[in-house]
Amino acid sequence: MYRLLETRLMKRSESGFLRELKITGKATDFFSNDYLGMAQDQDFHAEVLQAIQEDPTLIGGSTGSRLISGHSQVAFETEAFLARTHQTESALLFPSGYIANLSLFSCLPQKGETVIVDEYIHRSVHDGCMMSTATKWKFKHNNLQDLEDKLKRTQGICYVAIESLYSMEGDFAPLKEITNLTEKYGASLIVDEAHAFGVFGYGLVHRLGLQNNVFATLITYGKAMGSHGAAVLCKHIVKSYLINFGSPFIYSTAPTDLTWMQLKMGYQYILNHPSLADQLQQNIQFFRSQGLPILSAKESPIQALAVKNIEQLLQLRDVLLHKGLQTYAVFSPTVRLGQERLRICLHTFNTKEDIRLLASLIQENLSL
Ligand SMILES: Cc1ncc(COP(=O)(O)O)c(C=O)c1O
User: Fold this and answer.
1) 4 CA to middle of ligand 1, Å?
2) Residue ID of nearest Cα to ligand 1 atom 4
3) Which atom belonging to ligand 1 lies closest to the Cα atom of 163?
4) What is the pLDDT of residue 333?
5) What letters, b where the CB count within 10 A reaches 16 and e where it falls short, cover 18-56?
6) Does 116 share its domain with 150?
7) Domain check: are 224 and 127 in the same one?
8) Distance (Å, rounded) from C-alpha 134 to C-alpha 97?
9) What's the CA-to-centroid distance between 24 and ligand 1, angstroms?
10) Statement to judge: residues 72 and 191 lie in one domain
11) Which of 272, 305, 332 is the last residue of a domain?
12) Could you tell me if 136 and 193 lie in one domain?
């Protein structure tokens, strides 16, 4: 058995795509999802610490799944707060976005029903679909015509899954147009806002006032909020359905109350510090003004850089790291073979000097 595993790992290693865990070093961060710098914001940490001091029970284990002993007043109040804030009927908390997507896509679509996903949707959606007996189709990335062609061919219940801001492309879904299409064909739209939340207020569904046009919205707190956890925003009936049929929700110990308290405090912190999102946009625009071959959208904190081939990508990543700048090389199977790219994430805390250095090193190396 071990030999079999070794053979498989060797194969991956030979293809150059072996994954390994690396402790985050001291290099300048152009790769994490900490877009607003909240994971390292000492003022925010001080507020959370004070809450813990006032109520140390926050850090105690939840003692069980939400359906047994793990539900609490803090969880209840946080969900009510989220529904109020996002102006949705209801909200359900999850330990992570991955678990939330597993729950949604494993239990909602049934045999004989269809899920149509954008071809670049996050892995957690695919994994959720694998736990379901429904049929899954992919539509071409952000391609309204292809989505409509697929919608026309479905029979019966149909779900459509998209991200509002794509994590590897750094581009936006045409949200309004997609809601028009899902409404036209009576499909239920699920929008993953993992990367848009916090960068664009409470997310793009909220910003565009589309809450009533969307079946469910996923918000995650491990990225711009620098914390952990996730929430699905939906109608009461959908929440009740997830509580009854969503295995990953049902059969897992709830996180501590601190997780919920911290995310509630995170909302207040973001609200009190609008300059964070402004600073982030200034840094994105400064980066984009450097004239690099960028594949991503104007306002996206994720900026993907086109490279000639894998050799150039590896060399570029290593040269940057050697100069103290950490970026992320994206390989297959995360993106398609031949579409490998350098992923650069911008943050509030990146300085102009860091961005200038990054851009000039990239320019030098791309021309080699
Ligand atoms: C689009 C998208 N959805 C869901 C997730 C999963 O969220 P979490 O990290 O909270 O499990 C991620 C994380 O990478 C993501 O990028």
Assistant:
1) 30
2) 97
3) 1
4) 78
5) eeeeeeeeeebbbbbbbbbbbbebeebeebbeebeeeee
6) yes
7) yes
8) 21
9) 19
10) yes
11) 272
12) yes
Instruction: Give the residue-averaged pLDDT of 167-194.
Output: 98
Name residues contacting ligand 1 (CB within 6 A): 96-98, 101, 122, 124, 163, 167, 192, 194-195, 220, 222, 230
What residue owns the CA closest to ligand 1's atom 7?
A: 97
Residue 10 lies in a domain: no
Q: Is residue 50 a part of any domain in this protein?
A: no
Reply yes or no on whether the pLDDT at 338 is more than 90. Answer: no
* Parallel, antiparallel or unpaired: strands 114-118 and 328-330: unpaired
Give the residue numbers spanning the domain of 173.
64-272
Residue 205 Cα to ligand 1 midpoint, Å, equals: 17
Q: Same domain, yes or no, for 112 and 200?
A: yes
With bands split at pLDDT 50, 70 and 90, how would you rate the model's confidence at 368? low
**Total residues belonging to the chain:** 368
Q: List the 230-234 sheet strands across, edge first.
A: 90-94, 230-234, 216-220, 188-192, 158-163, 114-118, 135-139
Query: Residues 174-194: what's their mean pLDDT?
Result: 98
Q: What CATH number should be reported for the domain holding residue 212?
A: 3.40.640.10
Q: How far is the CA of 122 from the centre of ligand 1 (A)?
A: 7
Residues 169 and 69 in one domain: yes
Residues 227 and 188 in one domain: yes
Domain count across the chain: 2
In angstroms, what is the span from residue 311 Cα to ligand 1's centroid? Answer: 28
Which of 101, 124, 171 has the most ligand 1 atoms within 8 A of CB, as the residue to mutate?
A: 124
Percent of the chain with pLDDT over 70: 100
222-253 confidence digits (pLDDT tens)? 999 999 999 999 999 999 999 999 999 999 99
pLDDT at 335: 85
Same-domain pairing of 110 and 243: yes
> In this structure, what CATH number is given to the domain that contains residue 38?
3.90.1150.10
Q: Assess whether pLDDT exceeds 70 at residue 172.
A: yes
Give the sign of the dihedral formed by CA 82, CA 86, CA 92, CA 95.
negative
pLDDT at res. 336: 84
How far apart are the CA of 22 and the centre of ligand 1, in A?
19
